[in-house]
Amino acid sequence: MAANKNSKSSVAVIMGSDSDLAIMQTCIDTLKDFGIQPFVRIISAHRTPKAAAQFASGAAKKGIKVIIAAAGMAAHLAGAIAAQTTLPVIGVPLAAKEGLAGLDALLSTVQMPGGVPVATVAIGKAGAKNAAVLAVQILALSDKTLAGKLTRLKASQAKEVAKKNATLK
User: Which of 73, 80, 130, 147 suits a disulfide with 121, CB 3.0-4.6 Å?
Assistant: First the structure.
């Protein structure tokens, strides 16, 4: 896991369990591809609620600008964090072995009460990657370097699709 207790980061990636790291590594790696060293932690909304509240309420003072929170099953982490901060929170619902293939986590993450938003992405690895890209898009509003990297990403994706299309002819 990216241990970076002493470095400032603009993005925090938190997850409810160490078992979530296998999926969230995609998010961490995508952020690093954009030059962002994320602040990565395991925080449980249910097992460490005081730590979760302290993290959320103090995140902005640590220089964090966006929080990505991943959890499965009840998936309360993103909502619990959003309740304690004014920072944007992106929720990544994860499938649990004994859950409903992530549908339970998706509904828990997306169905927030009015005034406590959690931007919610897809279940699993695609959602983990999209959470990272969405965080970069938020930061790119005030960072021309990140905006340029996003433009290059979109152009690269378009080029890949065109290349695959050309093989069909």
Answer: 130
Using CA atoms, how far apart are residues 47 and 125, in angstroms rounded to an integer?
Answer: 24
Q: Which helix (H) or strand (E) holds 23?
A: helix 21-33
With respect to residue 125, please indicate whether it lies within any of the assigned structural domains: yes
Q: pLDDT tens digits, residue range 54-88? A: 999 999 999 999 999 999 999 999 999 999 999 99
CA nearest to 11, candidates 62, 56, 65: 65
Tell me the per-residue pLDDT of 114-159, one tens digit each, with 9 for 90 and over: 999 999 999 999 999 999 999 999 999 999 999 999 999 999 999 9
Residue 72 belongs to a domain: yes
pTM: 0.94
* Interstrand relation of 89-94 and 11-15 (parallel, antiparallel or unpaired): unpaired
CATH number at residue 94: 3.40.50.1970
Q: What's the domain range around 19? A: 11-143
Position 163 in a domain = no
- CA distances for 2 relative to 14, 28, 109, 137, angstroms: 11, 8, 25, 22
- Domain count along the chain: 1
